[in-house]
Structures are given as C-alpha cells and as structure tokens.
Amino acid sequence: MTTKEEEPESFGFRQEVISSLLQRRFQYQTKLRDDGLKAATEYLRCITKEIIKRSVEEALRESCNSVQVKHIEKVFPEWLLDH
Predict the structure, then answer these.
(1) Distance (Å, rounded) from C-alpha 71 to C-alpha 83?
(2) What residues in the chain have per-residue pLDDT under 70?
(3) pLDDT at residue 22, as a whole number
(4) Most buried among 58, 60, 61, 62, by the most CB within 10 A?
C-alpha cells in the first residue's frame, strides 16, 4: 500500500508554457526568475490535481463512468471558496 507522498505524479506543466502564459497576461514586460517560475508551475499543478480529484469524486457520486465538464463546473466554484 502506498501513501499519497509515495504516489508517482502522472502529470505536470512545462515551465516554458507557464512562462509564456504569464508573459501574455502581464501588461508590462515582467521578468520571472527560475525559482518563481518553478513555484508558479508547481502551484498550478497542485490546483489542477485538486480540481481533478474533486471532479472524479463528484462523477462517482453521480454514478458516472467518466468526468464531464459539468463535474468540473460544479467543483471549481467550491474550490475557489475553499481558497
């Protein structure tokens, strides 16, 4: 039996993609150091993982075999309220 800390991570984001998205979002030219970019990338990965987990739980409550957009739409506002 494995604990959550021992589970292998099956997804992630490429830092180049996150950097590009952040650069497009800021009105002025903004520099993001490597440690800041790593932190932002990890934060987005954690958010995504939590929303996926909650969406799967919601789908199971509704006896669905797959996660649908409606499940994500339902759990995302709840996640925002939690954070």
Answers:
(1) 19
(2) 1-10, 27
(3) 80
(4) 58
Domains of the chain: 12-82 (1.10.20)
Token code pair at residue 58:
């919601």
What local confidence, expressed as pLDDT, does residue 81 receive? 87
The 10 Å Cβ neighbour count of residue 18 is 19
CA dihedral of 53, 57, 60, 66, whole degrees rounded to 10: -30
Instruction: Evaluate whether 72 touches 51 at the Cβ level (below 8 Å).
Output: yes
**Which residue in 58, 49, 57, 50 sits closest to 12, CA to CA?**
49
How many Cβ atoms sit within 10 Å of the Cβ of residue 31?
6
